[in-house]
Specification:
about 160 residues; binds heme C; mainly alpha
């Protein structure tokens, strides 16, 4: 049977299905990424960092923010490829530090700082939050890729 919808039309439909709002981040399905990168924290959306940042991070998993997150070489390469292929590119804004080194933290990017400038240093340190990297503390549906204001509750 011939396909009912022609390929170019499908591509067009896919383009319209992309997240329409800046607050929606679909984390594309990837088994290795979910298994290896969502055990200590949530699966951060690949779109939130530039490809160079993911390359730098995936190049040194044994010194991963004070943790050893190293994995076998085959998985490491597969996950790195996945992250780079889905990285934010230009849309993430500048993800380099003043010296031009790729930032490894989403929470240090200008985009993150801009979206969170109303949150005080004391709030970040609350026992219920602990770290800006703990997205789920406030974004109740972060694991599903939803970051919009309707799903935010800042815990006391
Ligand atoms: C053994 C635990 C562990 C594993 C496994 C792990 N991480 Fe992490 N990751 C951490 C810790 C600890 C931090 C720092 C959290 C903090 O500052 O509160 C972190 C932070 C991060 C951050 C920065 C968050 C921010 O501040 O913006 C990213 C991005 C990240 N991890 C990605 C990954 C990826 C990709 C993988 C899979 C290859 C992975 N992590 C696997 C422990 C882990
Ligand atoms: C202390 C609570 C808190 C934590 C932790 C937190 N956020 Fe937020 N986030 C907020 C608030 C409050 C806003 C602003 C909502 C507004 O003004 O529309 C926001 C806004 C955002 C937005 C913009 C949403 C929009 O509607 O445009 C994104 C994206 C986002 N956060 C991602 C993250 C990510 C990723 C993490 C973890 C790395 C994180 N946040 C951690 C509280 C938090």
């Amino acid at each position: 049977m011939k396909p009912i919808i022609a390929a170019p039309l499908l591509a067009l439909l896919a383009a319209f299905a992309l997240p329409a709002h800046a607050d929606r981040y679909n984390v594309p399905k990837n088994a290795a990424f979910e298994e290896e990168c969502a055990s200590c924290h949530l699966a951060y959306p690949p779109q939130m960092l530039h490809a160079d940042s993911w390359r730098a991070m995936m190049g040194d998993l044994s010194h991963h923010f004070g943790s050893d997150a190293s994995i076998d070489e085959k998985r490491r390469t597969a996950i790195a490829d996945f992250l780079v292929a889905n990285s934010g590119g230009r849309k993430t804004g500048n993800t380099r530090d003043a010296k031009g080194k790729p930032l490894l933290r989403i929470t240090e990017t200008a985009r993150f700082e801009k979206k969170h400038r109303e949150i005080s240093a004391a709030t970040w340190k609350r026992a219920s939050i602990k770290s800006p990297a703990n997205c789920t503390a406030c974004h109740k549906q972060a694991a599903a890729g939803y970051y919009n204001e309707h799903s935010i509750t800042i815990p006391k």
